[in-house]
Amino acid sequence: MLLLLCSGVDAWAHNVAEGDKGYIQETSGTQILPFIYLGAKHMVTGYDHLLFLFGVIFFLYRLKDVGIYVTLFAIGHSTTLLFGVLTGISANAYLIDAIIGLSVVYKALDNLGAFQRWFGFQPNTKIATLVFGFFHGFGLATKIIEFEIAQDGLIPNLLAFNVGVEMGQLLALGAILIIMGYWRKTSSFMRHAFAANTLLMTAGLILAGYQLVGYAVA
Prior knowledge:
Layout: H1 2-5, H2 9-12, H3 18-26, H4 32-45, H5 47-57, H6 63-87, H7 93-111, H8 114-119, H9 125-146, H10 154-184, H11 188-217
């Protein structure tokens, strides 16, 4: 996290590497495989996505439940990504990334049971996952719009990108679930669950705070 703090504001703006940014800006025509790769890379290296999904699956033990929540997130992410890029509607990159950071905070607080204790109310976790999926997708759409992607081959390239996102998501979640599976079998899981979600909340606050500082400076 400290390394990320030292890497500059641009590196925090929804995680599109400079080389990938250059490719997106310069390419034209239908490029299925490269965009599948870019989508998968975006998800595998997207620490904001992964932190949120780590929080989502933290207390999910059945694969069926994991599939439902991940599908809801993917529907939200894909919907606003396509909507934003195809309509050209975007938001301030700092503010949308701050909301994405707050989505991590929300999920950590939810896992800690904070809403029940503070407000006597439990938000619908499925709806929340879908809604935050909208924000995550819109954040990426905002960055892609800034890159002025070519209109030639736009729709097939975006669909290929989404396929890559799903593939990357399955790879990343597979690795997380394997690690979580071993951890859950130990007595330390429940003992350290509070600390793990506190760290998750802290990471989300840092992400959100850094983007808000970037917005104020810009």
